[in-house]
Amino acid sequence: MAKIEAARQRQSGAAATRKPRAAGVGAPDHALRIVGGLWKRTRLPVARMPGLRPTPDRVRETVFNWLGQDLSGWTCCDAFAGTGALGFEAASRGASAVTLIEQDRALVLQLAATKERLGADMVQIQRGDGVAALSRLPPGSQDVVFLDPPFDADLFGPALRAASGAVRPGAFVYLEAPAAWSDAMVDAWGLTVVRHLKAGAVHAHLLRKCDPVPHA
């Protein structure tokens, strides 16, 4: 008993002299989950980084209800990937080619680790600027482009312009923004609003690329 008590005292003394951890430093990551498809309920890590704002599970579930549960054969691009939740969700639901674009090196490494863990061979990861990468995609090559740019950056117009060029007629652009966008606001890029959802401070939009107007 004396030995046990001595060990407890040593542990107590060590705890008393241990330096407190600074708030937020080394804090464990949290996670979200893939909502449907092949990897349903699989958890994706979410780094505790300023400005990182992954699309919540409930909103993603609604978005993929809008798009349809089965994305088999689709080509998709998540231009501001962050956690990759939108892109990995599309891949889970059958998309045949998914491009994740992210500028932050740590997030790119996390995306690569998730891709390897899932065996997601249909997913390609690029480090770089989302708008520039979208502009380099072949015109009309995408079935859906996901846009969730930083809300404090003036990227909505340039991102919508680039996304509109990348999607085929009749295809979709998903947009998250801090305010609602109307048909009049997206008409300049040949887009129209087909769905809208407000969830807290986030406005989620499903936009459709208009079919070309036939010449008379």
What tags apply to this protein structure?
Rossmann fold, 33% helix, seven-stranded mixed beta sheet, globular, 216 residues, alpha/beta, two-stranded antiparallel sheet
Query: Beta-strand level of the residues, as a percent range?
Result: 25-35%
Please report the number of helical segments.
Answer: 7
**Structure classification:** alpha/beta
Q: How are strands sequenced across the largest beta sheet?
A: 5-4-3-6-7-9-8
What is the topology?
Blueprint: H1 2-17, E1 30-33, E2 43-46, H2 57-67, E3 75-78, H3 85-92, E4 97-102, H4 105-118, E5 123-127, H5 130-136, E6 142-147, H6 156-166, E7 167-177, H7 183-186, E8 191-199, E9 202-209
Parallel strand pairs: 3-4, 3-6, 4-5, 6-7
Antiparallel strand pairs: 1-2, 7-9, 8-9
Helix pairs in contact: 5-6
Protein model, in words:
The chain has 216 residues and is an alpha/beta fold. It has one domain (28-209): 3-Layer(aba) Sandwich (Rossmann fold), CATH 3.40.50. It has seven helices and nine strands, in the order αββαβαβαβαβαβαββ. The strands form two sheets. A seven-stranded mixed β-sheet has the order 5-4-3-6-7-9-8, sandwiched between helices. α5 (130-136) packs parallel to α6 (156-166).
In short:
Helices cover 33% and strands 26% of the residues. It has helices at residues 2-17, 57-67, 85-92, 105-118, 130-136, 156-166, 183-186; strands at 30-33, 43-46, 75-78, 97-102, 123-127, 142-147, 167-177, 191-199, 202-209.
